[in-house]
Design brief:
The complex is a heterodimer.
Chain A: H1 4-13, H2 26-29, H3 36-47, H4 54-60, H5 68-72, H6 79-93, H7 98-110, E1 134-137, H8 139-145, H9 147-159, H10 175-181, H11 185-200, E2 205-208, H12 211-218, H13 220-223, E3 231-234, H14 235-244, E4 256-260, H15 263-268, H16 273-281, E5 285-286, H17 301-307, H18 309-324, E6 330-333, H19 336-342, E7 351-354, H20 355-362
Parallel strand pairs in A: 1-2, 2-3, 4-5, 4-6, 6-7
Chain B: H1 7-19, E1 24-25, H2 28-33, H3 40-47, E2 57-59, H4 64-77, E3 81-84, E4 101-104, E5 111-115, E6 120-124, H5 129-138, E7 141-142, H6 155-160, H7 168-171, E8 178-184, E9 190-192, H8 206-209, E10 218-225, E11 227-228, E12 232-240, H9 243-256, E13 261-265, H10 267-278, E14 285-293, H11 295-311, E15 315-316, H12 320-327, E16 344-353, H13 354-369, E17 374-380, E18 387-396, H14 403-423, H15 442-446, H16 450-460
Parallel strand pairs in B: 2-4, 3-4
Antiparallel strand pairs in B: 1-2, 5-6, 6-10, 7-11, 8-9, 8-10, 12-14, 12-15, 13-14, 13-17, 16-18, 17-18
Helix pairs in contact in B: 1-4, 9-11, 13-14
Classes of the chains: A alpha/beta, B alpha+beta.
The complex binds flavin-adenine dinucleotide and iron/sulfur cluster (2 copies).
Chain lengths: ~375, ~475
């Protein structure tokens, strides 16, 4: 029932403990079953004749697919391969937990995790064209959960004199759906729909506000032969270039902050410099948390928050503890999902902001 | 023990009352997970599709007080309790062989105090060791306890089998780092060791619990000493004509200077693992050596160490291979580099005086090599001025398919290897512990002195519920 690739990875992980220290979930729950090796062991036992049962299925969603394990693996194994497949399998078998199925059903209905009929209802898109050379791809989290980031991004582009378009009824990229149900046909179909919509807009450049969207467009879309014609850029990268070229003029802000790297950017897209260039251009002093860049500890992410808010809150607590140990009291996020999660549980005396809010504040 | 009717639910609700409903469970997924640790036999058992040993309850306490409550409940019902840290122990010490309660300590994962003035760090013992090391490094310090399982194990696991890290030759074994411990006794009382690790105020309790592998109690908190990161760390490598000259030279070196690392590889490991991981191609006995501390002292020590090595015919290989070894020190343990099932393998680490260590190497090699198709590789690290450890491994690429046959052969090889060590002045184990794997050999090792351990066990754990079948107790 699993592919050979999944079994190969699971068989590697099942007796290996090397990356456990980086797992943001198992380090908070303290439950051995949440480690990458446990998930590998469970899948490997299925290969050896054990029934894939609801208790195993549940474990597969107690993971935010942050990729810290993969990134650490000296021999290149990828737990996310079998975790995604296990999710698909559990759904097909009808053994996925109820909290998970509630979100899966919303996704299958509306293609977004919020079950929103109109994802753009919170955005003011008046006067924004739907076709153009530069397309701002907002994504589901910044459209619906933290629309203030989408609004900030649009204001910044206007201040920089960039003519941009936003897709009408922007289809979701499949990034979150792919994490929730695995890379199954529905997700590929979604990818195709989005790619076609991007092509139809005449875009030459896509600025993906959410690194999750950038990641799937750059990696999986290419693998599935449905990459859009346009060049996909991460928003951090694009905005950093506007700052570097002087197109976006900034007044200096002051203070100490700590950048929270999003795994989709720092690990999967190997991008850590643009956010640091932006923060430095803003005049802010970035005090790194011990685990930063590609070692960054995930805060749980927007998807986990939807189907298991308690686990997301616990995971997020772990990230706040990293900043509590250093002389900074402000986290700067670079992904809408991180902002959504971290801002929902801010310890007293601390604050969280996003680079888009900072750029908006400092630009004129 | 067998529970009748709804008795199991009665016990479960009592445990839930002690640690919270969400912290007592025993799903099928958990039963599988906790039935497999790093012990080759548990891995082989699972690899063949057999059902792993399973507990009745997985209990995850969040504090010392909760551990104490669990122990009192377990004593009342006489339910076995098996402490579990990271499950990365290679001796099967944490496996729930007796069913009952599996006590996963990882929710007790707080750093309680990092005092740079005093040079100490205090933590709960369920914290992953690498996490504690990260917290220390954030402040420019290190525990200087860097075992290869740093990322895998909990602090409690390392204490419970008295572990050792790669820098031990300078900074010591973990027993040299512990200042104080809090322990929950098998009967549920919470005790503390005296506030200092060395004294003449009666017998020292720290060594009693260190290395007791969960058979005498649960270590819940610990205070360690902290060390500043060194000003300089310099790596070197040498090639000796053979292991014999290597042993002689290293003995002289550790009596003259204080390296942090000395690893002397036999000819077989030099041409296999060393070649594979750091690309060193020559034949002979490879040795890497690291010196660290203040620049001036390191320079003086380097001069002495290099001179002594060369007196014993070593070819100096410069700094490159020593640096490569250090960079790759963890790489060795990832799947693809480390031995893996279906291969059969075991690490027969032992420790002895300089007088005996080479004898043990040859005796073990001779005994283990009697088994058809078994390969033997070895190195010696963790050096003292009085002796050193020998880390010999046996590897069998095609063990019997039948799990019971494989188990039998595995134990026969272990018996032979370990008895060779015991007969020549060695001990059962240097730093992985005894666990389930070597439990049967404890009486053979201790002889009449085993009585002392048995009396202590009886006194501390009158119902015999702490980690049954482990460590011969
Ligand atoms: C890749 C790898 C490399 C290794 N390298 C080294 C090395 O360099 N040096 C070294 O010393 N070891 C090494 N080991 C083996 C080592 O024994 C374990 O990795 C580790 O120290 C065990 O810790 P754990 O938390 O995983 O304990 P577990 O495996 O969970 O338990 C080990 C024993 O300790 C007991 N225990 C656990 N916590 C407590 C507690 N709080 N109180 C009382 N008893 C407790 C358990 O009951 C069991 O008997 C290595 C292991 C691996 C997998
Ligand atoms: S990802 Fe790599 S390091 Fe992590 S468990 Fe799997 S094999 Fe081990
Ligand atoms: S992807 Fe992240 S959360 Fe999932 S097992 Fe790996 S490290 Fe843990």
């Amino acid at each position: 029932m699993f592919t050979e690739i999944a079994y190969k990875n699971a068989d590697a992980c099942r007796f290996c403990w090397m990356c456990r220290h980086l797992c943001p979930i198992s380090n908070k729950t303290g439950n051995e079953v949440n480690s990458a090796r446990a998930k590998g062991l469970l899948v490997s036992m299925v290969k050896r004749g054990f029934d894939f049962d609801p208790s195993m299925a549940k474990v597969m969603w107690e993971c935010c697919l942050c990729g810290a394990c993969t990134n650490n693996c000296a021999t290149g194994y990828e737990p996310r391969s079998y975790i995604r497949e296990a999710r698909s399998e559990a759904i097909v078998k009808g053994i996925a937990p109820m909290n998970v199925m509630a979100v899966v059903d919303k996704m299958l209905d509306t293609s977004n995790m919020y079950g929103a009929a109109n994802l753009q209802e919170k955005l003011d898109l008046s006067g924004v064209p739907t076709c153009g050379k530069i397309l701002l791809y907002i994504g589901e989290v910044a459209s619906y959960e933290v629309p203030e980031l989408a609004a900030a991004a649009m204001r910044i582009l206007r201040k920089a004199g960039v003519d941009f378009a936003v897709l009408k009824n922007e289809p979701t990229s499949g990034a979150y759906m792919g994490d929730m149900i695995g890379f199954v046909d529905e997700v590929r179909q979604q990818a195709l729909t989005t790619s076609k919509a991007i092509d139809a807009s005449g875009a030459e450049i896509v600025i993906a506000l959410d690194p999750m969207d950038a990641r799937i467009m750059k990696h999986e879309y290419a693998e599935w032969n449905c990459a859009p014609k346009a060049t996909v850029l991460t928003a951090t990268n694009y905005f950093a270039s506007l700052v570097a070229s002087g197109t976006l003029k900034l007044t200096k802000l002051k203070g100490i902050v700590s950048i929270h790297d999003a795994g989709a950017l720092s690990r999967d897209l190997d991008e850590t410099a643009p956010i640091r260039a932006i923060v430095s251009a803003l005049g802010l002093d970035n005090h790194e948390m011990y685990r930063h860049n590609d070692l960054s500890m995930s805060c749980g992410g927007a998807l986990l928050k939807q189907y298991d808010p308690a686990l997301a809150a616990l995971t997020c607590e772990g990230r706040w503890y990293d900043v509590e140990r250093i002389d900074s009291n402000c986290i700067v996020t670079e992904a809408p999902g991180s902002y959504a999660v971290l801002s929902s549980k801010v310890p007293e005396g601390y604050e969280v902001t996003d680079y888009l809010l900072l750029l908006d504040k400092a630009s004129n | 023990m067998e529970f009748k009717g709804f008795m199991i639910n009665m016990v479960q609700s009592e445990l839930e009352d002690a640690v919270g409903v969400e912290n007592v469970s025993c799903t099928h997924a958990e039963q599988i997970t906790y039935g497999v640790d790093y012990f080759w036999l548990s891995r082989m058992w699972a690899d063949k599709g057999n059902t792993p040993p399973a507990p009745e309850f997985v209990v995850r306490p969040g504090s010392t007080e909760e551990v104490a409550k669990v122990m009192k409940i377990a004593n009342y019902y006489k339910i076995p309790v098996q402490p579990w840290g990271g499950g990365s122990g290679s001796q099967g010490g944490a496996l729930p062989m007796a069913g009952g309660i599996l006590l996963d300590n990882k929710r007790m994962n707080k750093m309680l105090d990092l005092n740079t003035n005093a040079g100490t760090v205090t933590c709960e013992t369920g914290i992953i060791f690498q996490t504690l090391e990260d917290y220390c490094q954030e402040k420019g310090y290190s525990m200087m306890h860097l075992p290869s399982c740093l990322t895998c194990c909990t602090v409690g696991g390392a204490l419970a089998h008295n572990g050792i890290g790669i820098l031990s030759t300078k900074y010591g074994k973990i027993d040299d780092m512990v200042l104080w411990m809090e322990v929950v006794l098998p009967t549920g009382e919470i005790i503390e060791t005296l506030p200092v690790p060395k004294h003449s105020s009666g017998p020292n309790l720290i060594p009693l619990f260190l290395g007791s592998e969960g058979t005498l109690g649960i270590i819940t908190k610990v205070k360690f000493r902290l060390i500043h990161e060194p000003e300089i760390r310099r790596h070197h490598a040498f090639l000796f004509p053979d292991i014999h000259t290597g042993y002689e030279a290293c003995h002289k070196i550790v009596q003259a200077v204080k390296p942090s690392i000395i690893r002397l590889f036999d000819e077989a490991e030099t041409v296999s693992i060393i070649k594979k991981v750091i690309g060193f191609e020559k034949q002979g006995s490879f040795m890497n050596l690291t010196l660290e501390g203040y620049k001036g002292i390191v320079a003086a020590e380097e001069e002495i160490a290099l001179k002594l090595a060369q007196e014993y015919g070593a070819q100096y290989l410069g700094t490159e291979y020593g640096e490569k070894w250090y960079e790759n020190r963890i790489t060795f343990f990832y799947p693809g580099h480390i031995m893996n099932n279906p291969q059969m393998f075991g690490t027969l680490d032992t420790v002895a005086t300089h007088e005996n260590i080479e004898k043990i190497y040859w005796a073990m090699k001779a005994e283990v090599s009697k088994f058809p198709n078994v390969r033997f590789i070895s190195h010696s690290s963790h050096w003292y001025d009085w002796g050193c450890m020998n880390y010999s491994r046996f590897i069998l690429d095609n063990p019997p398919e039948d799990p019971e046959e494989a188990l039998r052969l595995h134990n026969q090889i272990w018996n032979a290897g370990v008895r060779a060590a015991l007969a020549n002045g060695g001990v059962l184990n240097d730093h992985h512990g005894v666990g389930l794997k070597l439990s049967r050999l404890m009486k053979e090792q201790y002889g009449p002195a085993m009585k002392v351990l048995e009396i202590m066990k009886k006194g501390l754990d009158p119902n015999g519920i702490m980690n049954p079948y482990k460590m011969g107790l």
